[in-house]
Amino acid sequence: MAIATVNPTTGQVLKTFEGLSDAQLEVKLQKAADTFLSYRKTSFAERARWMLNAAAVLEKEKETYARVMTTEMGKTFRSAVDEAAKCAWVCRYYSENAERFLADEVVETPAKRSFIRYLPLGPVLAVMPWNFPFWQVLRFAAPALMAGNVGLLKHASIVPQSALMIEEIFHKAGFPDGVFQTLLISSQKVDRVLADPRVAAATLTGSEGAGVEVGVGAAKRIKKVVLELGGSDPFIVMPSANLEAATNTGVKARIFNNGQSCIAAKRFIVAEAIADKFEKMFAEKMAALRVGDPFEETTELGPLSSAQGLADLDGEVRRTVEMGAKVLTGGKPLDRPGNFYAPTVLTQIPKGSPAHQEELFGPVASVFRAKDLEDAIRIANDTRFGLGASAWTNDDRERERFIDGLESGMVFINRMVASDPRLPFGGVKWSGHGRELGVHGIREFTNIKTVWIE
Q1: Please, what CATH class does the domain formed by 233-413 belong to?
Q2: Contact criterion met (CB below 8 Å) for 188 and 162
Q3: What is the pTM of this model?
Q4: Which entry of 83, 91, 213, 262 is annotated as an active-site residue?
């Protein structure tokens, strides 16, 4: 795929970029290795000062960065501004907490002194997706850099300007040259970078296929890897739930980021007793969404990121309908320039159809009916994914059953799934392994060293 900015609202190619030559890539890899040797010796106070500077840059220039995000991948401008602000938050969070999270942990043993020390690993390769072009990168970079590692970013080929801007943010913040570098390279060169002995570890957020490739590549070289892959998150609604709140939040949870989020609600599992009412309310609210130019203030749903993404989604919906699903609203691309797909609600989902077993990346909601609590959990777990889950109930017994019974890395009760710097983020099953954010996230790329002193 060419490295280029293509406006998803119009389809216009705005800017193209040359990928790094082998010689240029070598220079960056060596710079990362050399920089790590000195950067790892910097104090937490120094790193925190630079990270707070990065937060200030993000906050001050959030509308500038938002315009680039919206131009490159089509998210609404309002949500892009929020994304830049959230990036500032994660920078502040780790600047304030990293030293505490990585402090020596004393363990009582027969030794004169024994403790655990957390030390940085080295250059970490981050392979990142286009859907949250700033947030996905910053939620890796803030903890990784505060831990003393250095970062190498291979961003998605459709968001090159975002990638270069992120490198510039760390430069403006005062981080030493080489602490964070963007690599404008094709996906075909990722394995070569991963194989390089100067690269200590890797993290990837993206598709299952890309995750398998990077996971296998890391395993072959015995390197640490964190994988955050796809999700087909359930959104369960039980009879005791506030139906108005559940349907309102359900719409937001499905169309957030134009429906292109790994933690978006995709499978709506509703108790039989309230299913008719839920489907009617939900479909009406989806149909009423304002679709349009993501830069317009009133727009609620913008375009998909690419023409290929639009074609893939339309094909999956068509195949699901051909297999027997019913369309309550939408079900097709909109007849207008750009990569727009109608807000869609499907019911009577056939087993084995794309809507049943794949992650539909766009504003398409699939509704399933559950006989009771256990049936809802069975349907929710009937997937190879296990990222997040949202369950709506005011029954204490049901709540506890959902928390323990849902096969996911995150469970939200009466709220949509969301990432938060203070809490670990990640999944189980084919949604990946390892965690980002919170105390667990910053320790992923450290050498957890046992120290015993007699």
Answers
A1: alpha beta
A2: no
A3: 0.97
A4: 262
CA 109 to chain centre: 41
Question: What is the topology classification, in CATH, of domain 4-228+429-453?
Answer: Aldehyde Dehydrogenase; Chain A, domain 1 (3.40.605)
- Per the residue annotation, which of 228, 316, 359, 398 is the catalytic one? 228
Catalytic site residue 87? no
Residue ranges per structural domain of the chain? 4-228+429-453, 233-413
Contact 246, 258 (CB under 8 A): no
Half-sphere exposure of 13 (CA within 13 A, CB side): 7
Which stretches within 239-391 are classed as H helix? 243-255, 272-287, 307-322, 354-357, 373-381
Per-residue pLDDT of the chain (454 residues; tens, 9 = 90+): 799 999 999 999 999 999 999 999 999 999 999 999 999 999 999 999 999 999 999 999 999 999 999 999 999 999 999 999 999 999 999 999 999 999 999 999 999 999 999 999 999 999 999 999 999 999 999 999 999 999 999 999 999 999 999 999 999 999 999 999 999 999 999 999 999 999 999 999 999 999 999 999 999 999 999 999 999 999 999 999 999 999 999 999 999 999 999 999 999 999 999 999 999 999 999 999 999 999 999 999 999 999 999 999 999 999 999 999 999 999 999 999 999 999 999 999 999 999 999 999 999 999 999 999 999 999 999 999 999 999 999 999 999 999 999 999 999 999 999 999 999 999 999 999 999 999 999 999 999 999 999 9
Distance of CA 380 to the CA centre of its chain: 21
Contacts of 68 (CB under 8 A, 6+ apart): 161, 162, 165
Q: Residue 267 corresponds to which tokens in the numbers above? A: 């499978």
Please give the sequence-ordered ranges of beta strands (E in DSSP) within 49-179, or none if there are none: 105-106, 113-120, 123-127, 150-154
Q: Which two tokens stand for residue 268?
A: 């709506």
Closest among 349, 257, 280 to 69, alpha carbons compared: 257
Task: Name every residue whose Cβ is closer than 8 Å to that of residue 378 and which is 6 or more positions away in sequence.
Answer: 370
Taking alpha carbons only, the member of 75, 83, 157, 131 closest to residue 361 is: 131
Is 358 designated active site? Answer: no
